[in-house]
Structure formats: structure tokens, C-alpha cells
Amino acid sequence: MEIRTYRETDFDGVDALWKEAFPDDPPWNRAENAIAAKVSFQPELLFVAVDQDAIVGSVMAGYDGHRGWLYAVAVRKTFRRSGLGTKLVHVGEDALRALGCGKINLQVRSTNAGIVRFYETLGYEIEDRISLSRRL
């Protein structure tokens, strides 16, 4: 298995992965929108895990000079509980650290207790914050 930077030829595999991992995501989070935006800004922060030419994992990171973010940490169902999710998070963290990032944020759905526990085992903490957003 290899974890490497995303390539254009990876699109179909990432799209299928995200549809499996995030079936209820809104349209703006779908691969055709998110990947197009990411490859135009900090494309070096989009990583994929490849096993025998198949995309089996992803992590997308971003850094604004103040805070880093992790997005789209996804692992194929057949590879879950193999340590791949942890490796992907570490790849994203390492890339952000190399840019001078001192704090990483991420968001998960409040109903996804399993993924909250996963991030807590990696040292992430629930903060007393309210996440607000506005679509432009």
C-alpha cells in the first residue's frame, strides 16, 4: 500500500470512496466540487491511499497560516480497523506541521460517536465551540 499525493487519474476512485464513506454529504462536499477546489489551492495537501491500483483511502488538509484543517479522511469499508485511517491522519498532520501549523481543527457530525472516539484516540479533543457556516 502506498499513500501519495492525489493525481488527476485518481478522481474516479476517490469519488467512489467518498460516496461509500460519506453517503449523506451535501452536494458541495462531493468529489466533483471539493476536488476541483482543492487542486486549484494547495493541491499538495490532498493524499490518497492506493492498494493494487485501487483508491482505498483519502485525507485532505488545508492551512491558512493560522490554523490547519483535516477533511475527507475516508477509508474503504474493507480496510477499516487496519490502521489506515490513523496513517492518513498522520500524513495530513505531517504535511501541516511542515508548513508551520501549530493547531489542527476538524469537524465531524455530532451523531458519529465512533469517529469521535477514533479522533480522541489520536489525541484530538472536543472543544467548547459552536461551528457556524455560511454558503457563498
In words, what does this structure look like?
The protein has 136 residues and is an alpha+beta fold. It has one domain: Aminopeptidase (3-Layer(aba) Sandwich), CATH 3.40.630. Helices cover 33% and strands 22% of the residues. It is built from four helices and five strands, in the order βααβββαβα. It has helices spanning 11-21, 31-40, 84-98, 113-121, and strands spanning 2-5, 46-51, 54-63, 68-75, 104-105. The protein has a five-stranded mixed beta sheet, with helices on both faces. β3 and β4 form a beta hairpin. The longest helix has 15 residues, at 84-98. The protein is globular and about 40 Å long. The mean pLDDT is 96.
Strand content: 15-25%
Name the quaternary structure: single chain
- Low-pLDDT regions: none
Share of helix among residues? Answer: 25-40%
CATH homologous superfamily caption: Gcn5-related N-acetyltransferase (GNAT)
**Major beta-sheet overview:** 5 strands, mixed
Strand order of the largest sheet: 1-2-3-4-5
Shape descriptor reads globular
Number of domains: 1
Alpha plus pi helix count: 4
Average predicted confidence as pLDDT: 96
Element order, helices and strands?
Answer: EHHEEEHEH
CATH class: Alpha Beta
Q: Supply the helix-strand structural class.
A: alpha+beta
CATH topology: Aminopeptidase
Query: What is the β-strand count?
Result: 5
Distance between the termini: 38 Å
Question: What is the CA-based Rg, rounded?
Answer: 14 Å
CATH architecture: 3-Layer(aba) Sandwich
